[in-house]
Amino acid sequence: MELTIPSMSDIKRAHTRIARHILQTPVLTSHSIDEMVGASVYFKCENFQKVGAFKMRGAVNAIFSIVPENRTKGFATHSSGNHAQAVALASKMAGVKAYIVMPSNSAEVKKNAAIGYGAEVIFCEPTLKSREDTLKKVIAETGATFIPPYDDPAIIAGQATAAKELMEEVVDLNVVMAPVGGGGLLSGTALACHYLSPKTAVIGAEPELADDAYQSVKKGKLMPAKPPVTIADGLRTSLSPLTFEIIRNHVKEIVTVSETEIVDAMRIIWERMKIIIEPSCAVPFAALLKRKEEFKGQKIGIILTGGNVDLEDLPFGKSFAK
């Protein structure tokens, strides 16, 4: 099957399409963090995006690229949280119903938010097979259109707009870093850099306990994920053929980090920048801290992907196996 890789024109059209439905999030810096890592770090704050995550970009682009007469039966997806909220709100904006299949172990804050945006939430077992099987039943019963979490050119083009905005605001970045789960954001980021700033290296970051992307790139073929038990709940998904193809061609490397490194990085951003980020969001900063000697004196862009945390279950003070 031929894979459809978004072009620069696709990304520009996506940006125009979604502009009035999303927020152009700020790029923040921290002098203390710059001193800590010995580099200039620019954080693209998608934790301030609608629904609290970058996922809003892809969901809005995918839904509003469909003509209104084909939206009437609503939209459906499966997601552990942020994509669920994005599809729920984007569907509400489009005036139609959303059906969201969520794993039973999804964070309470993300479950409640999807319901709050008016979606009908259907819970399933926390496995990819259960997600997909449950979604098939929902679509068969409702006729809703599937909005994939990441394996879709419209989703990837939408996610690419975050990096596009970052590079338009901060020129001559040496590196852009983003986390990787299913690979929609990292794929979009890699394409945006490839088209707009080909000298900028793109680096993915992934939990050691959910390192299928790292293993796939290392071995040159899609590798099945081991059961993901990472605190970074947004990164428990696996690459698709489309995201893998883009990542292996346009991402310099993928760095893996431990659970302790994720929580430590998350805490530093909370403490030094006074902003809320979720564990998945901290993964690329954890990778930068781990490898900071390699990046001294450089201009580093990091996409802070989301800020949806369950305040009743914060990880600070807990111990994790290294």
UniProtKB/TrEMBL annotation:
InterPro entries: TrpB-like_PALP (IPR001926), TrpB-like_PALP_sf (IPR036052)
Cofactor: pyridoxal 5'-phosphate
Keywords tagged on the record: Pyridoxal phosphate
Keyword Transmembrane on entry: no
SUPFAM superfamilies: Tryptophan synthase beta subunit-like PLP-dependent enzymes
Record-linked Pfam families: PALP
Domain Tryptophan synthase beta chain-like PALP: 19-306
Name recorded for this polypeptide: Pyridoxal-phosphate dependent enzyme
